[in-house]
Amino acid sequence: MRAGEMGSMHNEYDQEDFFEEYAKMPRSKNGLEAAGEWHQLKPLLPPMQRKWVLDLGCGYGWHCRFAAENGAARVLGIDVSTKMIKEAQKRNAAPQIEYQVCGIEEYEYPENMWDCVVSNLALHYIENIGRVFERVYKTLKPGGVFVFNIEHPVFTAGVGQDWIYHQDGTPQYWPMDNYFMPGERKTHFLGCEVTKQHHTLTQILMGLLQHGFEIEAVEEAEPPREMLETPGMKDELRRPMMLLVKAAKKQ
Questions:
Q1: E strands of 70-113, at which residues?
Q2: Deepest of 55, 117, 146, 184, by most Cβ within 10 A of its Cβ?
Q3: Dihedral sign, Cα of residue 88, residue 94, residue 98, residue 103
């Protein structure tokens, strides 16, 4: 599941069939309120009033729109997918929002420019996540905040990122292997083979600390009670799918 951006080497999201299937997902059609993790991610975001906000892997631009509606002075959403950016410009335009076709690894990260950097379900496409942490730290103003949602290491280490099923088709258990072997993982998503990058929990959290961040919050996504009747959502309580982190640049 993805609401953000691909890394520079892979761009399944610009394939017509894949993009059409992605557009059918509830979070694609209905935005943040249809995302099972939004009730946890939203409280991690800092006040947006008069802030400059950068969205790494903006997808349809839902988080950019949220920042603008909550008073952000300037918002930049970047995504390597041309189709995603065109959709963002149609769905979530505002005078203070700029969208740019650009990969997370290719953005220039001007020094001390942004008050808040957001990334939602995009960093698990990045091989050198430590390099991104280093550059985000550089581009944040002192006291700035980095809030991101990444696929949980338990999920990315899943074998094929899928359940083992009973004969009746219901999930039996979640298989996991090669946890301490970070790197490329192949999975099938929306009828397409997708390449992701597995990072351990140590790599993610210690990576932030090693590049100067102070970690302020760590949460594992759990669907809200009101969404548990959505097909497949109760199974999200059986293993973590997403890891949400808030980190700050020291004053």
A1: 74-79, 97-101
A2: 55
A3: negative
